[in-house]
Structure formats: C-alpha cells, structure tokens
C-alpha cells in the first residue's frame, strides 16, 4: 500500500459547533468544515487492491485522513460501531485524484425552536423528543474532488437542519396541517377534507430540500474559493424504522436478501433523463446558443445525411420516427453517445448531482447547470415491515462497481460470502473489500468473469438487522 | 331499452375514401367523416342496465347509429368478427349525452410512396408488403360529445398515416438509419456506432405522433364548427405480434390471465401529473395570470391560516415540508381536491387528452391547454412471447368502470365468467355486458359489493388468443 501525498493541515474553529480545516494538497488549497463533530465523521479509507495485470499503486486520496485530522479520524472499525457498515475506496486510473468521498454517522435531530411561544403546551409534549437516525453518503466527484469533499462535509448538516424544521410534525401520529400546534382534531371538518400526509413524506421533503440547500452551499463555497467541480450524491438515512435512499447521479443502492434483490435507487444520466432535458431545451432554446441540436439521432449526422429521411426523436417521444435532415440537424446533439459514453452537451455523464455551477461547455458560454438538477429521487424501504434476517444488507456503491457487476452478481457475491463468515465481527467490511476486489479483473474471483473497473469505487455495506434492532429498541 | 333521440341524418362524400355525414341532434349540428370506410367502423352500442334503485332509462347516445348510417352501422356481432371484441356503453346520469365513444377495426398499412425513385431496388423487396393490424379505441368526452366523436372518426386515420410513413422501416429486420434505402450494412463503422432502434420503437413513435396530429385536427374542426369539448383516448393496436396500448387520460387497460393481472396503462390526472403541471407553472408563471397558486397544500387555505406554518409542496418535491403562509398562498390552487375530485385549474379532471383547445377557466382568460397534453404513454405487450391461453383477455374501459371495480375485481369477474361459457360464441360480448352490470349496484352480482357508477362506461374485451393465431398465421 502506498502512502498518501504530503498534506499540510491547519485546524481552526468556525462558530460553536463547526470545525474548520484548511489544508493544501499538491499545492491546491482546500477548506473543509464539519458541523456537529460529535456525531458525524467524514470517512475515507484508501484501499488498494493488488491487480494481476496492472501494476500500480494507489494515487493520493484527497481526503481528510489521520495526517490531517489529528485524533478525529475514523478507521473502519469505528465506522462499524457507528453505523455497522463500511466504506472501501479504490483509486483507479481515471483521474489524478480519488474523486469519491464518503460520509456516515449518527443524525441527531433536535426539537425545533420556532413557534415555541405560540403554543407552549403542545410543544411540551415533545420537548424531550429527540430523534436519532443514521446517515450514509457516497459522493462521486468530477472535474476535481472539491465538490465531493464539500458535499461530504455539508449535506448531513443541511439534512439535519431540514429535519429539525419539521421534526414536530414527524413525531406526531400524522403531521398536522399547522406545525405550530394549532391542532385540529380529527372530527373537525377542516381535518376531514385535508389530504393525509405521512411522517415519511416530511423526511422525503427534507431530503429533497437538503440536496438543494447543499447544492447552493457548494455553489457559494466553490465560487468564493475559485474552485470548480461537481459530484453525484447517494444518501441513505435510517430513521423511525425506515430506510430512505435519496439519489442524484449514477451511484446505486440495492437491497440484498436471501430470496430478493431490490433496487433502492435509479440512475440519472443524460440517457435516462433524455425527455426532461430535451423538454427544457424545447422551452428555452436559447440555452443551446445555436450550437447544439435538441433532437436525438441514432448517430451523429454528417454532411451527406442532408436531405435524407433519418431516424430521430424529440422531447415528447419515447418511440422513434423519421425526419428529413436539415442543416440545423447537423449540429452537435444535446445528448450524444450511448451507455457509459452518453454525454450531456458533450460534457457530463450524469444529469443530476451537486455543484457544477460554473461548468460550461468547452470554449462556449453554454452552462450545464440548468440541465443538471440537484433534486434527488427518494425511495423508502419500510425496514420494520420486513422480516429481517441476519444477512439482509443494503449495498451502496458508486458507478465503478455497477459498471462491471450487475445487481444479481453483487447479490450472489453477498450470499456466497456472508454465511461462511458469521463469526467475523468485520465480515461486512470484508464483504465490501471483496466486492471491490471482484472488480479488479481477478479471474479466480467468485464471479470468474474477470471484469476490470478503472474507476474509483466506494462501497457501503449496511446490515439491516442491526438497524432493525436499534429501531425496535428505541 | 329506450329509443335514442330523433336524429336527422345526411350522407355525403368528401374526397375519395371519406364518408361525410352531417346530422343534427337536439338541434345541434354535427359533422362526422370516416376515412377508409372499408376497414374501419366507429361503434357505439347503447346498452342500458336495469338498476335496482334508480329507475332511469338511457339518455341519448350521441353517435352514428343505424338511423344515421344506413347500411354501414355495426352491431356487436360484426365487431366480434372484426376484432373479436365488444364495446358496451351505458348512459348514466352524469351528463345530458353519453360522452363515451368507441371505435375498432382493421388497420391496413400500405407501402409508403416517397423515396420510391431514389432506390427502386430496395423498395421492390417490400413492395408487396402490406401490414395489417387491429385497432380498438375508447374516448371519454367532456364538455360535450363533439371531441370524442371527432377522435373516434379521426385517430385511426392519423395512426394509419403515421404508420405508413415509417412502414418500410418496420418491415426491415432493424429500422435503417435512412428510410429511403441508402442501406448501411452491419459491418460498416457507421452502423456499428448507431443506436439499435427496434421496429416497435417506430410504432410507439407513430402512436405518439398520431395523437398529436389528431389533437390538431380536432382543434381545427371544433374551431371551424364553433363547437367545444375534449376527450380522453385509450387505444390498443395489435401489430406484428405485439399489442400496443397508448393512453392519454384516465381510461385503463389491463391484461387478465389465469395467474396474472397486469396493468397495460397508467392514468393521467392532475394528481398523477402534479409535478409536471407545477413545473410548467414555475417556468411560465404568467399562465396562472395571478389567479392561482402553484403550490399544493393539504386543503384550501383560509384567511386565518395567514402567518401559520403549514404543510406544502412545490414542483420539485415528492415529499412535503412546512412554509409560512403568505397572502399569495390563499389563491385558488393550480391543482385542487383529491382522487376523483381532483381538478386542474378548478376545471378538468384529466391532464392528458385530445381537444379542449378553447377551454378556459370560467370567467377568466386562463387556458387549460398548455397544462393539458395530448401525448400518450405507450405500453408494449409482446403477445407472441406469451404462452397464450384461450381465456387470456385484455379489458379496456373508461374510468366509470374503474371507479367502482379494482383490477383484481375485474380479473375475478373475468375468471369466474369465461370458463362456464366456453361454447357461447358471444361470450366476450356477454363478459363486457356483465362487467358493466357489475357497476350498477346489483347486490346479487358476483362481487356482491353493490357499488354504483353514475358515469358513462365503455368496455372492450379483447381475447388475445385469436390475435395470437392471426399473428402466427400471417
């Protein structure tokens, strides 16, 4: 294993519950800050596999590590205690730095302050009601590691703030129409005509708003520090017996049980979001500055396609039709390429994520941001309703893993590994390591398929059984 | 059974393959025209149930019937021959006229003409290649029957035209990039980099374009004749071994097999399309003319909600959050009400359909059309891949049926009816009738639940087995 780069660190204090760290890495300055250091740890464990064909050593992990955060760093044993899970990260050959970031920790949601004067009595009922959740997050950076680092250090705080703003609604049997306790009883006609909102709808809303808030913070921070970049974000939160998975980007989370493999997220790429992106260009053609064509064709058109009837589709179409090629159709397509090669405006492989506020198409003034959304899609898994088995796990990983392993292959690896390692306290860590090993072209691996991923990969394995136990013990 | 209204009919000829009928109904003039009368029949069978609690007789069916179409009318025995299916329509108490319309028939797709000069040789290969499909459609009108009648008489022609424009691509092994036969062979680098488009993608595209084209025709026709109204559209097309179901509105199609009930469409209502509609109002706030609020609240806000923190959600949210009520939040909501009562701009219960080009919010200039889409969602059922059983059917029906019967209840009725009536040549007709009876509050009916629908109802029962046989015999 190689040593990381030389890092100069400096610790400071910003506000009462924030820890500020300024450090330089390869002469590039970074500012990181933690909120609530007591119950949150950013994690990054450099894990380098031995690869049969490619002799290489890990490139630097651009993350706070032991060298930087004296006394505050977390190794995976600690992670196991916090959230019974693990993150393994591998540096592959795609970019100079590891651009994956991970974070996990407890989420302590305090009673909200506002409205306290208005209805002291109702608030008293839940004054002592603290909610505790668990939080895991993976961020896959692009255009540099800055956005991913900021996200790993900010998103949990945004989420905590958003949850604290609605926590009084969450602890009620049903979130009340009025947060500040002007309680309407179920027999009141006003109540009867109200839509039934559930506590989980507030958590979903909090996640959606937290992603937006975090995106704004990243935009401001990057601009202030003259840095650039963006990242995908995949977040899992265990709260009140449910697992919420929020995804913006192309990472993925799946549930693996003995007889079931269930996707808990879906990917947002220029291909999967084609219609939304084309629709935006249809509504605001000026966003393309006359440089791109909104229409999709099966391949890039060439001059000798002019006048021919060729296959195409527009924003309203899931199917295809034919059109006569005009000169404007020869422009570069808004979405080009297939599969892993698909690019938005020739630039970006994902259509949702955080950051990228300054990102423009090379040599133009065309911005990516209006096409790129920070809103996540949230999936809810009602863990309390599952008859949990000891070996039910959620596997979260950045795209590098899924490029070479299917959901079913990962499930097979999980099922083949866990039963034989029941006594190992680190078996979930070992499983995460093993999953990463399986992407490094080891022909003797359990899949025997020897596929190689050259991307950074981060994996969380979250055993649901221990989460369920926490929940029922609460 | 009651007799329909007095109808004055007049038959004319418009063009070579069009049949024009002008008639008056209750002094209101209607113009109907058929294209390709040889292989297409609009159908409308007035079927009135005896209801235990509500003594009523059928209101007039505003459709071409025997009285109008001398010699050309279709009764359901004929329908059975055409598409092995049936339409039953009941007049309930919601509106003065039956606003449901149905159509079914053969879809004869001829070889396309254009490009013939360019590559005679390639065209020769498929010069004799006529495709024949089957077409079933249900249209549920609102604001009068005019749009539904126009749709029943137009959409199949639009679809045929759209299919004929791409038929050469459909009969190829894989639709070629160039329609006019500048054939690129699979070893050509151009071909290799092309996305793989399937023949079914062309049918989906043709359906999407046909709905748009039909919508434009209806807009022009209604404007020219000073009429108003709109309709939902649910279309099933059996072509090349596949069943395509295109839906714009709140009708529904399901597949019922011995061990399976599969939805073949999903409904488009202000509730199911909330985010798209709110998003449009976010992008174009002027569409609400300051009269509506884009935000969703659990109930209509009142003056005394001002200043309170209340539950709300905006276009980017699937979850809920709280916000402090401002004066502008007291406006009427863009989408209001729940379930069957949900309305778009206080006016319309569906968010997709045909027509309504002139529809405005009462006493305002606010148009419904930009929020209302004519684009259908298309589902493909690969019938050739199913191991078809004699009693596998597709049930298509307007919303009146699904208001009182769930998919599972309909499936139970289908499974309880068909096995005991194997010898009856009209058993699918009888099944459709029975389904409609089951919505009329007959406590002794097979469901025993006695629910009553007061809406017009149309039902098609399409036995897949005979379709599969046609397909394999082709």
Automatic annotation (TrEMBL), chains A, B:
Annotated CDD domains: PP2Cc (cd00143)
Boundaries of every PPM-type phosphatase domain copy: 113-464
InterPro entries: PP2C, PPM-type-like_dom_sf, PPM-type_phosphatase-like_dom
SUPFAM superfamilies assigned: PP2C-like (SSF81606)
Protein name: Protein phosphatase 1M isoform X3
Organism: Vulpes vulpes
């Amino acid at each position: 294993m190689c040593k990381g780069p030389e890092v100069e660190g400096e610790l400071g204090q910003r506000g009462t519950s924030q820890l500020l760290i300024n450090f330089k890495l390869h002469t590039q300055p970074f500012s990181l800050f933690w909120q609530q250091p007591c119950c949150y740890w950013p994690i990054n464990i450099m894990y380098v596999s031995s690869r049969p064909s490619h002799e290489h050593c890990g490139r630097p992990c651009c993350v706070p590590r032991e060298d930087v955060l004296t006394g505050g760093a977390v190794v995976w044993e600690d992670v196991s205690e916090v959230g019974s899970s693990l993150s393994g990260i591998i540096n592959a050959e795609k970019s100079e730095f590891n651009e994956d970031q991970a974070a996990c920790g407890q989420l302590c949601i305090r009673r909200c302050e506002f409205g306290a004067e208005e209805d002291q009595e109702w608030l008293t009922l839940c004054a002592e009601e603290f909610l505790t959740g668990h939080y895991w997050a993976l961020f896959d950076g692009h255009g540099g590691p800055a956005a991913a680092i900021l996200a790993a250090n900010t998103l949990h705080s945004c989420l905590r703030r958003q949850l604290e703003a609605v926590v009084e609604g969450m602890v009620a049997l049903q979130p009340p129409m009025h947060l500040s306790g002007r309680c309407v009883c179920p027999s009141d006609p006003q109540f009867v005509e109200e839509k039934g909102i559930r506590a989980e709808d507030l958590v979903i809303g909090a996640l959606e708003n937290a992603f937006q808030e975090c995106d704004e913070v990243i935009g401001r921070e990057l601009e202030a520090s003259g840095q650039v970049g963006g990242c995908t974000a995949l977040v899992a939160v265990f709260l009140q017996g449910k697992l919420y998975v929020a995804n913006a980007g192309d990472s993925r989370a799946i549930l693996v049980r003995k007889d079931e493999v269930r996707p808990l997220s879906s990917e947002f790429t220029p291909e999967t979001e084609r219609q939304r992106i084309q629709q935006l260009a249809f509504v605001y053609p000026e966003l393309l500055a006359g440089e791109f064509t909104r229409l999709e064709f099966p391949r890039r058109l060439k001059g000798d396609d002019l006048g021919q009837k060729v296959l195409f589709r527009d924003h309203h179409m899931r199917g295809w039709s034919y059109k006569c090629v005009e000169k404007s159709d020869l422009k570069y397509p808004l979405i080009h390429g297939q599969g892993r090669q698909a690019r938005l405006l020739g630039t970006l492989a994902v259509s949702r994520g955080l950051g990228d506020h300054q990102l423009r198409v090379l040599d133009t003034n065309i911005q990516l941001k209006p096409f790129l959304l920070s809103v996540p899609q949230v999936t809810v898994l009602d863990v309390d309703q599952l008859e949990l088995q000891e070996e039910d796990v959620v596997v979260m990983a950045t795209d590098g893993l899924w490029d070479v392993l299917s959901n079913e292959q990962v499930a097979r690896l999980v099922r083949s590994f866990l039963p034989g390692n029941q006594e190992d306290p680190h078996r979930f860590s070992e499983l995460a390591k093993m999953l990463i090993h399986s992407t490094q072209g080891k022909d003797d691996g359990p899949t025997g398929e020897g596929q190689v991923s050259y991307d950074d990969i981060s994996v969380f394995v979250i055993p649901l059984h221990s989460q369920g136990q926490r929940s029922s013990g609460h």
